[in-house]
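COURSE: Structural Biology Practicum
ASSIGNMENT: Worksheet 4, Part C
STUDENT ID: 0417
INSTRUCTIONS: Below are two proteins. For each, the amino acid sequence is given first, followed by its structure token string. Answer the questions at the end about the second protein only.

PROTEIN I
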Amino acid sequence: MHHAGRSWATAALLMVVASACGGQSRTGESSGPGSARSTAAQVAAEDYDSSRFGDSAKVDHRWYPLKPGTRYDYRGSSLEDDERLPHRVTTIVTDLTKVVDGVENVVVWERDYAAGELVETELALFAQDEEGNVWHMGEYPEEWEGGEFVKAPAWVHGLRGATAGVTIPATPEVGTRDYAEGYAPPPIDWADRGRVHKTGQKTCVPADCYADVVVVEEFERNIKDAFQDKYYAPGVGVVRVGWRGANDDSKEVLKLVDVRTLSTVELDEARAGALALEKRALRISKDVFGRLPRSKGPGD
């Protein structure tokens, strides 16, 4: 569920100041730096500190829980070459963990299909710090076209100039500064940014209706009037993806159609699938994923 067709070229890392609230919508653009870090609700990408992570692979964020064995299925559509194609995404929180810079991450396996064809399969790494902020520590995305492998623009914190970013702050609040969701310099060009756009929202999707929803807008600074909105429901996670702005290229729309806990057999199969992807990553991305410790599963 990443932005399609964008070159993530901005490296600036600004602070986001967040605290609990409800029922608000964005009141203005982000302000400049200046607030000192004084509470657990304040976080910025430059505040990353590996010593401030405890049981980091246990991601129990109110709006973004990543419980191993959970499967999310999304359906929608996106534009490709001015043609709107049916689009579906399957996301599985595996029971694997992977260490980055001494921080244990939960491994999330995502598969992305357009018009029934696999276009991306990805391993994404997330960790929660002691204050409850969820960090994106890196990813290995394989891009496919017509059944053929195209490329794998992997990035991981601390390698080849890449740095971790914030996926969602511990206590999202409207009106706070935008924040880096991770950064990787060229040729990867990952510089996605996020900002709390709305809180206290209600939304209905095929899976269910949800209240107290947080909407985070993602954008690229050097492309004006182009936003991807992600709707986070308490106790569930992302339930809807939408778009705003005349300059949004993909105009991606996704809705959660099912969320469930995998059976033991299904979880075993998911683990095997993720490990197979990791095996390719160790070969294809030797200078990034190949430099990390191998993922660990139950009993390792």
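PROTEIN II
(use this one for the questions)
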Amino acid sequence: MSPALTSSCTVDVRPGRLSPDEYARRFSDANPPLSGAQALLEAERCLYCFDAPCASACPTHIDVPSFIRRIADGNLRGSARAILQANPLGGMCARVCPTEVLCEQVCVRNTQEGKPVQIGRLQRHAVDAVMFDGTAAPVFTRGAPTGRRVAVIGAGPAGLACAHTLARLGHSVVMFDARPKAGGLNEYGLAAYKTPEGFAQRELAWLLSIGGIEVRNNWKLESAAQLAELRQHYDAVFLGLGLAGTQQLRVPGEYLNGVQDAVDFIATLRQTADLSSLPIGRRVVVIGGGMTAVDAAVQAKLLGAHVVHMAYRRGPDAMSASKAEQEWAQTHGVVLHHWLAPVEIVGHDGHVTAVRFAEQALVNGQLQASGRELTFEADMVFKAIGQQLLSTVLADAGVSLAGGRIATDDVGQTSLAGVWAGGDCRAGGLDLTVEAVEHGKGSAHAIHALIMRRAMT
């Protein structure tokens, strides 16, 4: 980009680009719930397969035909129980799980007709009907107290699933979380239009209502000594740390004003009650190809950005954002670009004004610059090129890592006796909310088995 073009760019970052009604409309529920009649009609489309591929495709192994049949029979409580028995965060997963590449992709209706049963929306219908019915008896109750205590570090999906399962089994749980609110990714990391009306905190309240779970906020794991102390005072420890670190671009201009991590932008938006007070640029560039990049790009557009570019260094098939997420971004006016790698963030008077990209091509399986460059003007730039585990403390404590994440066995046992791990911080995963829930649930049962064996000796 020429110096003349750079200096002529006028930075345009401001709040209040829309009317209050328009903010409310744009950030309303992206996928509204089914009505009772709609749910009944959709449930009757299910073939109730005996060897259902949808159940096998679900990381938490929800008995999909069973819960759908109960909806068709008018038994919403029974349906919700079948869901929550397998997935205690079934309400959130119904909203954010990529069902199009999991259960719905293998639905027989999809393979035969190209139109799957709307499993995710039916799951939400059943869970919401019971979870928020204040007159109904609890779906689950806490087991008889065992007198045993478990520490859970991280109150995100994995930690919550672990804590709730342990409470059902009668153990006492103390959850430690670095944030002011519990919920982790569900509270801070998802697009607002996916979980409107404070759903993350409503689900959290429901999970905690079982009893036996104490939450301690603003507590951060900062030393190996802290972990050693928890191991000494608790019967077991579960690490649901998530990925608190962010990858850096390592290009000139990365630290200009107006450049920030997409996860921080999303978290700020989620905690802003009045969206009209949140500044957004007129021209926004998002760098990355995952769901975080999509959430940041779409929400920038919804806040009133005139132009939003989303650039990824490889082709569309390599993007971690699903095809449905990519189409969602395009439907909302985000311009997707592939085969572009950032080489410089250009600024003027300390603020970003443009991003310069080098076009990429695959040569003998390796990415190489083609020699062509493109420049997009920008008032704001969001970096969404991946997150990483802040592992120094874990390494100091003797926790074995694999690929920068915590190495575990199949049930989450780490190299440290009495310490389990799950969710995004665990090596070898898919980085999905539903998988994190399964990690937490599976580790809870393994912890329970260990505790009860100890009690018998």
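ANSWER KEY EXCERPT:
Q1: The longest strand covers residues 351-363.
Q2: Confidence is low (pLDDT under 50) at residues 1-7.
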